C-alpha cells in the first residue's frame, strides 16, 4: 500500500467516523458518549460541526478514532481466546462491555 493510499484510507475512515459520531450524538446522546468514549464538551463540538468542517478535519491525515482498550483482558474476552463457542461467548462479550463501561466512567 502506498503512502497516498494510506492517507486516502485515513481520510475516508475519519469522515465516516465523524458522520457516525454526529449521528449517534444527535440520536441518543448518552449512548453516544459511552460508545464513542467522548466527554460532553467533545460531543457538543462534534454535534455542531458543519459538513465543510468535517471535511477539513477528515483531511488532516491523522486517524481520529482509536482502539480505546489496550487491555489484554478486554481483548481476550472479546475474541473468546481459549474458550469454546457457546453461551460463554455471550457472557465474555458482556463482561468485556462491563469492563469497558467502568473504564469510561473512570475517564469522565
Q: How would you portray this structure in words?
A:
By secondary structure, the chain is mainly α. The protein has 2 domains: 3-58, Flagellar transcriptional activator FlhD (Flagellar transcriptional activator fold); 72-107. The chain has 6 helices and no strands. The chain has helices at 3-27, 29-36, 40-48, 51-58, 72-79, 87-107. It is flat, with a radius of gyration of 17 Å. The N and C termini lie far apart (38 Å). The relative contact order is 0.12. The mean pLDDT is 82.
* Fourth CATH level, the homologous superfamily of the largest domain: Flagellar transcriptional activator FlhD
**CATH architecture designation of the largest domain:** Orthogonal Bundle
The outline comes out as flat
CATH class of the largest domain: Mainly Alpha
Order of helices and strands: HHHHHH
Secondary-structure content class:
mainly alpha
Average pLDDT taken over every residue: 82
Rg is 17 Å
Main features:
73% helix; Flagellar transcriptional activator fold; 2 domains; 6 helices; 108 residues; flat; mainly alpha
Please outline the helices and strands.
Blueprint: H1 3-27, H2 29-36, H3 40-48, H4 51-58, H5 72-79, H6 87-107
